[in-house]
Amino acid sequence: MQALDALPPLRDVIAEHGLRATKALGQNFLLDLNLTRKIARAAGPLEGVHILEVGPGPGGLTRALLLEGAASVTAIEKDARCLEALAQVAQASDGRLTVIEGDALQFDHRELMAGRDGPKRICANLPYNVATPLLTNWLGSEPWPAWFDRMVLMFQREVGERIVAQPGDDAYGRLGVLTGWRTHARIVFDVPPQAFSPPPKVISSVVQLVPKEVQHPCDLKALETVTRAAFGQRRKMLRQSLKPLFADPKAVLDEVGIAETARAETVDIAGFAALARAQQASA
After folding, report:
1. Torsion over CA of 41, 47, 51 and 57, rounded to 10 degrees?
2. How far is the C-alpha of 62 from the C-alpha of 56, rounded, in Å?
3. Please, what is the Cα angle at 167 between 142 and 185, to 5 degrees?
4. Which end of the chain is more exposed for a tag (fewer CB within 10 A), N or C?
5. Helix or strand or coil: residue 172?
6. What is the pLDDT of residues 229-266, one digit of tens each?
7. Structural domain that includes position 242
């Protein structure tokens, strides 16, 4: 059996299998093994840890996770063209790699990772076109705290900034509220376009998200409803943007201690949680 560190360079693997990243699948292959090891270390230490990876492509990050000592990696890949390349990694992994063909959005990831003893984490260079839906699905995991103890994910820099944004930041919006409500999130480092094949037109960011106990309890769906209304018309004062949800938005805002002239981008997570509780009570 070929050892992981004896596998051919990723460029050779891509050439051997005729792989080419496709825009339709949001693919950009990460070829620098030093960089993939850096991403894996951001998710570590990995001894005894079971990893869920989405969109492994030819397996660059997959290799790194295994080399860094992950107990197992479960990789979901939609592109059938990549399966032979991933099979090579699986053969060198001593049974630690499981490759599942399919659309990651169609799987119950908690169920997929059930039965593995030890911490579970998500680490992925996410396909750009499904990155945000996947993240919101993971943030919406019930019950909470989640089945995973950490996520280390790569996004376009613009999305990464939205994830970690705070009230008053230009990038602060629905995603920042949901992320901040359920996790401690930070950008670990940026990745330049030339690290990928083909190079994207934007800088990418590796983001670490660690689940936390919810400090401001409210119903998830109510929070989504309130933030959708508030940020859907973010330049309007909340007394206007919340009219579809409340018969008397001014009274609700007074009750939760938010100025009626406030706009969505100035309201913190505690304020949105209070509005979500009010929305659920009035529904």
Report:
1. 60
2. 6
3. 45
4. N
5. coil
6. 999 988 899 999 999 999 999 999 999 999 999 999 99
7. 220-282
Write the burial class of residue 149 (CB in 10 Å: 0-12 exposed, 13-18 middle, 19+ buried): middle
Tokens standing for 237? 């004062």
Looking at the structure, do residues 66 and 204 belong to the same domain, yes or no? yes
Burial of 110 (0-12, 13-18, 19+ CB in 10 A): middle
Same domain, 142 and 12: yes
Cα distance between residue 133 and residue 106, in whole Å: 11
* Residues 33 and 77 occupy one common structural domain: yes
Kindly list the distances between the CA atom of residue 15 and the CA atoms of 10, 19, 27, 223, in Å, as whole numbers in the listed order.
Answer: 8, 6, 16, 47
Residue ending a domain, choose from 158, 177, 211? 211
Q: Assign residue 258 the CATH number of its domain.
A: 1.10.8.100
The CATH code of the domain that includes 143 is 3.40.50.150
Tell whether 104 and 26 lie within a shared domain.
yes
| Four-residue CA torsion sign, 268, 274, 277, 283 | negative
* DSSP secondary structure of 222-262: HHHHHHHHHHHTTTSBHHHHTTTT-S-HHHHHHHHT--TT-
Element containing residue 18 per DSSP (H, E): none
Q: Which residues pair with 184 in a beta bridge?
A: 210
d(CA 185, CA 234): 23
Tens of pLDDT, residue by residue over 197-232, are: 777 888 999 999 999 998 999 999 999 999 999 999
pTM for the model: 0.92
